[in-house]
Write a structure and sequence with these properties.
The chain is α/β, with parallel strands linked by helices. It has helices at about 5-10, 25-35, 45-50, 55-65, 75-90, 100-105, 110-130, 145-155, 180-190, 205-210, 230-235, 245-250, 260-270, 280, 285-295, 300-315, 320-330; strands at about 10-20, 90-100, 130-140, 165-170, 190-195, 215-220, 240-245, 270-275.
């Protein structure tokens, strides 16, 4: 079995994927037409052209424009279901999906509508595809602490449907410290905690996520390598990093995949995982990310298996389920 065959065969958990970032141009155009919502593109081809952006902010501008067509429960269901079908193709057997309620509630879409569509898709994915899933609600860091508190209050009635809260959107200029009080409240309410840190932002943001937000996982975290003390801590605490290689390339965090540090981090003992982030925008889903780093960094069979094992160890599923999937990986 060669490396690409192994990648296809390995069961995997995806821990860093924004459901709004899985919005393929064809589906966006179809939902826009169904809802009779004007988008600034005349064809699917024009939407695809718009996906050529040059940095995080220009990506976010397109990302939020696309989200505008999501209005009804069925829209959110269709979005999530399309992603689950990709998971089935890539042997992603468990996924923990981010969703951004503020992107929708700020447009007048009720929180309940968003969660109902996503949850229905999660239920169907388990029944029809055998894929388990959990939802992680993210606060948009470019918005205020006050707005985040409002969103937390909106989420409380749906506590049983949301495993964790996270922090995403424009990183630079919006340190985790800005949301320390919100995350303290979220922890009190019983949510697990994750946060984007150390992608475009400096290693200091990772320290803040650890010490102030008290995260269970760091999303991205690739700049941790710039700080030896931080690296030692991440290794010692076995703190997972949900790394997104194609995203890092597309947003110029690295200029060439051969420069990516995921293999070095893995070899040093950092608990890194592979994920797709916003796959419809960044050029690939889970297996595309695995293949890209395998080919650029010449990852061995053992390293690929370790990355798959890490994904289950870092997930929020039961210890029993973790062990089941880890045994599956080892058998291949």
């Amino acid at each position: 079995m060669n490396q690409v065959e192994l990648i296809r065969a390995l069961p995997k958990a995806e821990l860093h994927v924004h459901i709004e970032g899985t919005f393929e141009p064809e589906l966006m155009f179809a939902i826009a037409q169904r809802n009779q919502i004007q988008i600034p593109y005349q064809s699917v081809e024009e939407v695809k052209q718009a996906y050529n952006f040059h940095n995080l902010q220009s990506f976010l501008d397109i990302y939020y424009a696309g989200a505008n067509v999501l209005v009804h429960e069925q829209d959110f269901y269709d979005l999530a279901w399309a992603y689950f079908e990709k998971c089935a193709e890539d042997r992603v057997v468990h996924t923990e999906m981010f969703f951004d309620p503020q992107t929708h509630t700020e447009r007048g879409v009720e929180f309940a509508i968003v969660i109902a569509g996503l949850k229905r898709a999660c239920t169907d994915a388990k029944e029809k595809l055998g894929i388990s899933s959990q939802l992680i609600m993210c606060f948009l860091r470019h918005l205020s602490e006050e707005k985040a508190f409002e969103t937390l209050v909106q989420a409380l009635p749906f506590k049983d449907d949301i495993i964790a809260v996270g922090l995403d959107s424009s990183e630079v200029g919006h340190p985790p410290a800005k949301f320390e009080r919100v995350f303290a409240k979220a922890r009190e309410a019983g949510f697990l905690i994750v946060a984007h840190a150390g992608e475009e932002g400096p290693p200091e943001y990772i320290w803040e996520a650890l010490d102030l937000l008290k995260v269970n996982r760091i999303d991205h975290g690739v700049r941790s390598e710039e700080d030896e003390l931080l690296m030692a801590r991440l290794i010692d605490e076995k703190m997972p990093l949900t790394v997104c290689p194609l995203s890092n390339l597309k947003l110029c965090v690295v200029n060439d995949m051969k420069e990516h540090n995921i293999r070095r981090l893995l070899q040093k003992g950092v608990h890194v995982t592979v994920n797709s982030d916003d796959p419809s925008y960044f050029g690939g889903y889970m297996n595309d990310n695995f293949v890209a780093i395998q080919q650029a960094l010449d990852l061995s069979h053992d390293e690929l298996k370790q990355l798959a094992i890490n994904s289950f160890e870092a997930s929020f599923i039961s210890d029993e389920d973790k062990q089941k999937w880890i045994e599956e990986v080892k058998k291949i």
